[in-house]
Design goal:
Two copies of one chain form a homodimer. By secondary structure, the first copy, chain A, is an alpha+beta fold. Chain A is about 40% helix and about 25% strand. Chain A binds a DNA duplex through helix 2 and helix 4.
DNA sequence: ACTGATACTGAGACTAATTCTCATTTAGTG
DNA sequence: CACTAAATGAGAATTAGTCTCAGTATCAGT
């Protein structure tokens, strides 16, 4: 459908184009995000990447966010999650079980259309985030 | 349109029905939330209510959340916001300016319909949260 | 390849948000 | 009024995220 392996390269290129350098630690953060198809928290990344400092993880995420390569999502837990943004614009939203915290991605075309039809004077809209809450089968 | 003054009483009744006691500090948290039409953070509530402990504020919010009387919303800032849930089901979502952090409520019928049409096996859906991101007129 | 300017880094101090603990108080029942 | 368990406030503890700074590494220009 899309080429997930390419997001990493695409991001590396964008980083360079923005006048930033190609550093190993930042590239490792990019590669980890490229691997994941759903949200990861900054501290998870930090824990998973030995030898990469916390500050570097947060800085890399911030830069990727500024370049429109990563999106921040809130899933009810205390920590924010981050996930890559496909250049194609293709994306998903999240369903969260309020009991066990399980998160599942979902996509819905009608929802996207409804959101794209929303206009608000005084605002230039750029992105959106939808989270559905409920109880999963195990917790019902 | 609806009777905002009643949410407070409604909540007090639900609290009692759940076997909890009627305490003054918790009632003050409820009254403050009843007064606000958009999200407030826990620490704002704590700061505003002299004589009510931080722990009590967080506990009250948690109980109200469990009873379906309050909803947690994430608006990009580090702290979560909380707002009352009208018994009528009437609610709004949020538009956030990613530059200055300004938050505005909005409502959209077509969006609500699209969301209500979403079904996901293995999940009993109960609520949803939509956040639109962009740049406000002042920051464009 | 060498060098200089400076972006980038990791460690850990720091701040902010939230949760926990516990001794004391208080609501509601009998 | 007395009793019991829920509820409270103070502040310690934990967790998430930010900041500082001295050392390191990238890259452009030789």
């Amino acid at each position: 459908m899309n080429e997930p392996a390419n997001w990493s390269e695409h991001s590396a290129r964008q980083i360079t184009a923005a006048g930033l350098r190609r550093s190993t630690p930042r590239q490792r953060v990019i590669d980890l995000l490229a691997d994941r198809d759903c949200a990861v928290t900054a501290l998870e990344i930090d824990a998973e990447l030995e030898g990469v400092g916390r500050a570097t993880v947060y800085r890399a995420i911030e830069q990727l966010e500024d370049l429109g390569l990563v999106r921040k999502v809130d899933l009810g837990s205390s920590a924010h999650g981050y996930e890559k943004i496909e250049p194609s614009g293709h994306h998903h939203h999240h369903i969260v079980c309020d009991d066990c915290g399980k998160v599942e991605p979902f996509e819905d075309e009608a929802l996207e259309e409804a959101i794209h039809d929303i206009h608000r004077k005084g605002f230039r809209l750029e992105s959106h985030e939808v989270t559905l809450h409920g109880h999963c089968a195990d917790c019902s």
